[in-house]
Specification:
mainly beta; Jelly Rolls; seven-stranded mixed sheet; seven-stranded antiparallel sheet; 0% helix; 55% strand
C-alpha cells in the first residue's frame, strides 16, 4: 500500500526569517491524521534567512537529524560541539537526557535550506551526543546509507531500528529497492520529479509504504530523495 503526502497538503508556518513546511504535526500545526509514521516523528523543511536562526533551546529523548539541501548551518550545543554543516553533510544529535543547542544560518547573504528530522529513540535518557559526517556523491553508487542502528558502512549510528538512505538519480535513470518483510518505508523527495511504482512525486512530497515487496524508482529529471526503512 502506498499513501502519498503531497507537498501542498503539508502544514506551514512562517516568520520574517523562517519558512517551514511540516509533513507531520509540529508546533502550532496539528493534524491527528499525520502524527508521524512508525518511529519517524518529524520531517520539517526549513528555509532560514541569512544570519538568522534558532536561539538556544532544549530537547530530550529524541534522535534529531539535519540534512542540508543548500547553504550552510552553524550548530552549537551543550556537549561542546560547534560546527558548520554544509550541503552533503548530515548531522545527528541524540538529545537523550537533555541537550541545549542553537542553529543559525552561517551565511550573511544566502538562505539555508534544510530538512530537520526527528526519530523516537529505542531507549530514554541516554547520554546526549552529537556527530556530523560528510556523504559525498559517488558516481555509479546512487544509494548511500546515512544512518543505521549499527553505524554500518560508515553511517551515523542512531538509537533506533532504522536505516536512512539517500538516493540520487540522474534524468531517466532507474533504481529498484527491495523491501524486507515486516518493514515499512517513508520516502521524502528532495528533488524531482520521480515515478515510484508508477506514482508521480515531486520535491516536498512524501510517500508512506507498507505491505510492499519492492519500490521501483524512475527519475523524470535529476532526483534526490531520502528513504527511511523502519521497523
Amino acid at each position: 500500500m502506498l499513501l502519498s503526502r503531497k507537498s501542498k497538503d503539508r502544514g506551514k508556518s512562517e516568520r520574517i526569517w523562517l519558512t517551514s513546511y511540516h509533513s507531520f504535526s509540529f508546533g502550532e500545526y496539528y493534524d491527528e491524521n499525520h502524527m508521524g509514521f512508525r518511529a519517524l516523528r518529524v520531517i520539517n523543511e526549513d528555509t532560514v534567512a541569512p544570519s538568522r536562526g534558532f536561539p538556544p533551546h532544549s530537547h530530550d529523548n529524541m534522535e534529531i537529524l539535519t540534512y542540508i539541501i543548500q547553504g550552510e548551518l552553524q550548530h552549537q550545543d551543550s556537549t561542546g560541539s560547534k560546527v558548520i554543516i554544509k550541503q552533503g553533510d548530515v548531522q545527528l544529535m541524540s538529545a537523550g537526557s537533555g541537550i541545549t543547542h542553537s542553529e543559525y544560518n552561517a551565511s550573511s547573504e544566502k538562505p539555508v535550506h534544510l530538512l530537520q528530522i526527528w526519530i523516537h529513540p529505542d531507549k530514554d535518557n541516554l547520554t546526549p551526543s552529537h556527530y556530523e559526517r560528510t556523504f559525498p556523491k559517488k558516481p555509479g553508487e546512487p544509494l548511500h546509507l546515512l544512518a543505521s542502528k549499527e553505524g554500518k558502512e560508515g553511517s551515523l549510528q542512531i538509537h533506533q531500528d532504522v536505516l536512512l538512505y539517500r538516493l540520487i538519480l540522474g534524468k531517466n535513470e532507474s533504481f529498484a529497492f527491495p523491501i524486507n518483510p515486516n518493514r515499512f518505508i517513508w520516502v521524502q523527495i528532495v528533488k524531482g520529479p520521480v515515478l515510484i511504482n508508477g506514482n508521480s512525486l515531486d520535491a516536498g512530497d512524501g510517500l508512506q509504504v507498507s505491505e510492499e515487496t519492492i519500490l521501483s524508482f524512475e527519475a523524470i529529471q535529476d532526483t534526490e530523495l531520502l528513504l527511511f526503512d523502519l521497523a
